[in-house]
Amino acid sequence: MPLGNGQWRSGTNWDWFEMNETPTPVQSEKFTKRFKDYFNVEVSVEVTGHVAGVRPCTSDNHPFMGTHPQQPRLHLFNGLGPRGTLWAPTLAHEMAEYLVNGGKLRSDCDLNRFALPA
Q1: For the purposes of burial, counting CB atoms within 10 Å of the CB of 63, is it exposed (0-12), middle (13-18) or buried (19 or more)?
Q2: Structural domain boundaries of the chain?
Q3: Among 41, 73, 76, 111, which one is most buried in terms of CB atoms within 10 A?
Q4: What Å distances lie between residue 37 and 32, 41, 115, CA to CA?
C-alpha cells in the first residue's frame, strides 16, 4: 500500500506455526521479494520497519457467536476474519435476534460447535 514520499507498507502471511509477535528475518525476506516482484523493473528496497502479530481465527474459518457454556451472562461474537465486513451485518442481526428473541444461531457459527462432550 503506498504511503507517499516513496514509502510503502507491504505484507501479510498465514504462518500457522509461528505464534508470537516477533518479526523474523525469513518473513522480512519473503515480503521484500514479494514486494519487488510486483514491479516490472528492478527496484531497490530499504526495510525501515518490521512488525508482526498473531492473527486470531477459528480452525474452520467461520466466526463464532453465542453464549459461553459456563458463563450464561457472557455472550461472544468474534472471529469474523478478513471477510468480516461481508459477514458482520447479517451475523450482527442474527446475534441480536438470538439475544433478544431467543432466535437460533446458524450451526456453522454457533460457538457450541467447539464444545467438548459432557
Answers
A1: buried
A2: 1-55, 64-114
A3: 111
A4: 9, 9, 44
